[in-house]
Amino acid sequence: MNDSDKSAVKDASKKSVGTVVLKLDGKEIELPLIVGSEGERAIDISELRTKTGCITYDNGYMNTGSCQSAITFLDGERGILRYRGIPIEQLAEQSTFVETSYLLIYGRLPNKKELEAFTTRVTRHTMLHEDMKNFYEGFPRDAHPMATLASAVSTLSTFYQNEPGRAVGGKELDLCIYRLLGKLPTIAAYSHKKSIGHPFVYPDNSLDYTANFLRMMFAVPTEPYELDPGVAKALDVLLLLHSDHEQNCSASTVRMVGSGRASLFASVSAAISALWGPLHGGANQEVIEMLQEIKDNGIAPKDYLAKVKNKEQGARLMGFGHRVYKNFDPRAKIIKKACDTVLNKLGVSDPLLDIAKQIEEAALKDDYFVSRKLYPNVDFYSGIIYRAVGIPTSMFTVMFAIGRLPGWIAQWKEMNESPSFKICRPRQIYTGQSETPYVPLGKRR
Ligand SMILES: CC(C)(COP(=O)(O)OP(=O)(O)OC[C@H]1O[C@@H](n2cnc3c(N)ncnc32)[C@H](O)[C@@H]1OP(=O)(O)O)[C@@H](O)C(=O)NCCC(=O)NCCS
């Protein structure tokens, strides 16, 4: 075995299956070829700079594997998504959000006793410290709930100073995990209540995860609250479908921030901020705004598509396209079906759903979208379900964040527990000025 091979297998999870020869400056350098459990191959360049003085350049990380991970498998070409090996379709059909959270975080499905214990622990931590209410007082009423969410999660570090999540493994980390999973829906519902001037509704631990969230969102002290179990179930599936998506922008953020050994709370707060962007989790809000604009201005779907194709003012068809899925997004298929079910169940007819379906139909026949492999993604129909349930548009990305939380936790935990843990610190190709002397203020033009 040569030196490169030795370094490749230093990390036990790396499987070196051969070498790749790179020719540079008249020399030949061997780099290990490693392979994942689903056959994806990668050239291990961890020693490239030491051996050649060169780094790699990969704008947007289109070809870069930043870690090895056993959490989620995604094949964009074949439209496959699996959590810990289990197809997303089977989980959506048979599991729950809480059980799937356990699966993602701890690596396998829990047995009955483990699931009960996990559910009980998460449920015990739904309440917020009373002093956190003062914190909500300080925000303007029209604050975006994603801003409140990121701040409130970061604030958890001030309330739980002894267990900020830096401890890797063991009961301390588990406690941080229960706290985060338990409190995020409460934090989110409080943001909504604050924005509409209603009193906060305390969690009710006799309800399951999603039902409890719906009650905190919509119950008022003056009237009884009737929960529709079908709606709670649909929402639970929606959360489950969002639970993880391997190394996307916010998961990479959680790893990047956590790689400085920042706490779980701080890292998740950063991931929430990353998710907020319209090209990432913010897209579900943008989809509804786009559909609303089409409806309000009476634009024909084909005319809107023409605007997108002409790239007028950078217009994009929100909810379409994906960095990885180039065939179809398996989550979108499940959500589209759930959308019809929920709307039928609630007896809601939403003109935006009709517009969405017309747009999808037209886009899937249009060469611009077909040739670029642009298909509806998870965000295209999820907003219509949220609307039907009564969740305001500004809360859509918050729903995504609640769903994605177990994935962020799993990514952070896996990275921190990895024997090959390293602070993330990419390099760059500097394109600025070469050495330039300082010019005193009086001598500048
Ligand atoms: C998700 C997304 C950011 C992926 O981007 P990406 O992998 O970097 O792909 P690119 O931006 O390079 O797009 C490739 C081509 O398709 C076009 N394209 C991509 N998404 C498009 C969309 N939603 N509408 C119109 N054109 C789109 C680009 O303009 C580009 O065309 P060009 O080659 O003529 O310049 C992108 O598809 C997008 O902006 N989608 C809308 C936002 C969204 O729904 N995000 C949620 C993702 S789950």
Describe the structure.
- The chain is mainly alpha-helical and about 450 residues long.
- It has 3 domains: about 5-55, Rubrerythrin, domain 2 (Single Sheet); about 85-280 and about 395-415, Citrate Synthase, domain 1, CATH 1.10.580.10; about 285-390, Cytochrome p450-Terp, domain 2 (Orthogonal Bundle), CATH 1.10.230.10.
- The chain contains 19 helices and 6 strands.
- The chain has a 3-stranded antiparallel sheet with strand order 1-2-3. The protein has a 3-stranded antiparallel sheet with strand order 4-5-6.
- β2 and β3 form a beta hairpin.
- α11 packs antiparallel against α12 and α13 packs across α16 (about 350-365).
- The radius of gyration is 24 Å and the shape is globular.
- Mean pLDDT is about 90; it is low at about 1-10.
- It binds coenzyme A.
- Coenzyme A binds near residues 279, 283 and 379.
Short description, anyone?
This protein has helices at residues 3-10, 48-52, 88-94, 97-106, 112-124, 132-137, 145-159, 170-196, 209-218, 229-241, 249-258, 264-276, 283-296, 301-309, 330-346, 351-365, 367-371, 379-389, 396-417, and strands at 16-24, 27-35, 41-43, 72-75, 80-83, 86-87. It has 445 residues and is mainly alpha-helical. It has 3 domains: 3-56, Rubrerythrin, domain 2; 86-279 and 395-417, Citrate Synthase, domain 1; 283-389, Cytochrome p450-Terp, domain 2, CATH 1.10.230.
